[in-house]
């Protein structure tokens, strides 16, 4: 330690100041350039618009964009051009197609420092098929409600019309509704003499019953009931 102090005393003031700045890393060379990674992937449909952003803290940096295509064995970078926007950290594609798929990354050159972002992989998918009836859920619910009302109307109205038609025909031709008396008169037109024929035949096969009190037991044998 004493040797180092002797060396510092012998150095000029300017050299000593530069030495302190280098030790504290406060000089312009010690301020490292930072480039943010950005989103790892992005999925869009064909025909959509897409924008890539390269966020960095360089002030006089030159930003270029590269498109890396996936090959069979290697990833070959392809130069796209200088960046757009205030700090050159933007790349814009108006209408995306299948050939735009791949990895996009920016490269920032700040004089002596050269850095690039991790990149964003762009996926391009086919547009979803449009449904036959492109409508909202509220419209679908209203259509279903209207269908239910129409079905109820078709079921109730024809039955009601048939009932009124039948009643009108009965009133027109003078057909009265049957009453309870007609339902109870089940034997109308039946001869009562014919109804007692079976009873007369059964009575003719055996003797009639006699009063037990008016007969003597020894004279007559009683018929069993």
TrEMBL record:
InterPro entries: Ig-like_dom (IPR007110), Ig-like_dom_sf (IPR036179), Ig-like_fold (IPR013783), Ig_sub (IPR003599), Phos_immunorcpt_sig_ITAM (IPR003110). Its main location: membrane. Gene3D superfamilies: Immunoglobulins. It is found in: Cell membrane. SMART domains: IG, ITAM. Residues 1-32 form the signal peptide. Keywords: Adaptive immunity, Cell membrane, Disulfide bond, Glycoprotein, Immunity, Immunoglobulin domain, Membrane, Methylation, Phosphoprotein, Receptor, Signal, Transmembrane, Transmembrane helix. One of its GO terms (cellular component) is membrane raft. GO terms for biological process: adaptive immune response; B cell differentiation; B cell proliferation; B cell receptor signaling pathway. The chain crosses the membrane at residues 143-164. One of its GO terms (molecular function) is transmembrane signaling receptor activity. Required in cooperation with CD79B for initiation of the signal transduction cascade activated by binding of antigen to the B-cell antigen receptor complex (BCR) which leads to internalization of the complex, trafficking to late endosomes and antigen presentation. Also required for BCR surface expression and for efficient differentiation of pro- and pre-B-cells. Stimulates SYK autophosphorylation and activation. Binds to BLNK, bringing BLNK into proximity with SYK and allowing SYK to phosphorylate BLNK. Also interacts with and increases activity of some Src-family tyrosine kinases. It is a single-pass type I membrane protein. The keyword Membrane applies. The keyword Membrane applies. This is B-cell antigen receptor complex-associated protein alpha chain.
């Amino acid at each position: 330690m004493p040797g180092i102090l002797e060396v510092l005393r012998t150095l000029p003031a300017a050299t000593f100041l530069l030495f302190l700045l280098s030790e504290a890393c406060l000089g312009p060379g010690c301020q490292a350039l930072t480039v943010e990674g950005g989103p790892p992937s992005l999925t869009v449909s064909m025909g959509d618009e897409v924008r890539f952003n390269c966020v960095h803290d360089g002030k006089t940096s030159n930003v270029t964009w590269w498109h890396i295509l996936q090959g069979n064995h290697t990833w070959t970078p392809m130069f796209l051009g200088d960046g757009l926007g205030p700090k050159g950290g933007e790349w814009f594609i108006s209408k995306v197609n299948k050939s735009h798929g791949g990895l996009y990354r920016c490269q920032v050159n700040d004089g002596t420092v050269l850095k690039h972002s991790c990149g964003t992989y762009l996926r391009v998918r086919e547009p979803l098929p449009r449904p036959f009836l492109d409508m909202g859920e509220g419209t679908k619910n209203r259509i279903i409600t209207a269908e239910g009302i129409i079905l109820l109307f078709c079921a109730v109205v024809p039955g009601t019309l048939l009932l009124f038609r039948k009643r009108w025909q009965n009133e027109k031709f003078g057909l009265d509704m049957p009453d309870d008396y007609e339902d109870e008169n089940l034997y109308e037109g039946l001869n009562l003499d014919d109804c007692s024929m079976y009873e007369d035949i059964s009575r003719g096969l055996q003797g009639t019953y006699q009063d037990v009190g008016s007969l003597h037991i020894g004279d007559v044998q009683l018929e069993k009931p």
